[in-house]
Amino acid sequence: MADPITDALLWQILRGEIDDGSVCRLVWERLGYRPAGDPATEPWLAGPATPPDWAEAHPQAPDFIAERPPTVRLTRSIPAEHKQLLKEELGFRGYSVAELVPRLTRRATAVSWLLAWRRRAGLRAEPSPECRD
């Protein structure tokens, strides 16, 4: 996997500084999806490391930012003990009411899932100095 899941990267996702496709690719890589050709232009397909339930439901990697059903599935796949990592590890206090739009909340879901993945993988990051007020 090319990009380590750092706190700085996660904050960039939350602030919308990384394009939606790159956010999806970070999750796809960790779910075992692989590009069919050029990673930037070709679809990503389930690979041998893709969990069977994901591969069956989504043989082609879903767009977690544009589509609600795969994002719901992503949320449900986060273990209960890791559901608060956005607050615990990043100090993220959520978006303001004006910011509560599907695109941002789905990006927060992707970050929450990536934090859970990082924790399950035994990877830790230094606490982030950034904190939303």
Describe the structure concisely.
The protein has 133 residues and is mainly alpha-helical. It is built from 6 helices and 2 strands; from the N terminus they run H-H-E-E-H-H-H-H. The protein is globular.
Explain this structure to me?
A hairpin with an 8-residue loop joins strand 1 (33-35) and strand 2 (44-46). The protein has helices at residues 7-14, 20-30, 52-57, 68-76, 85-90, 102-120; strands at residues 33-35, 44-46. With 133 residues, it is mainly alpha-helical. The model has no long low-confidence stretch (mean pLDDT 89). The protein is globular and about 35 Å long. Helix 2 runs parallel beside helix 6 and helix 4 (68-76) runs parallel beside helix 6 (102-120). The protein has a domain at 7-31 and 63-120: Actin-binding Protein, T-fimbrin, domain 1, CATH 1.10.418.
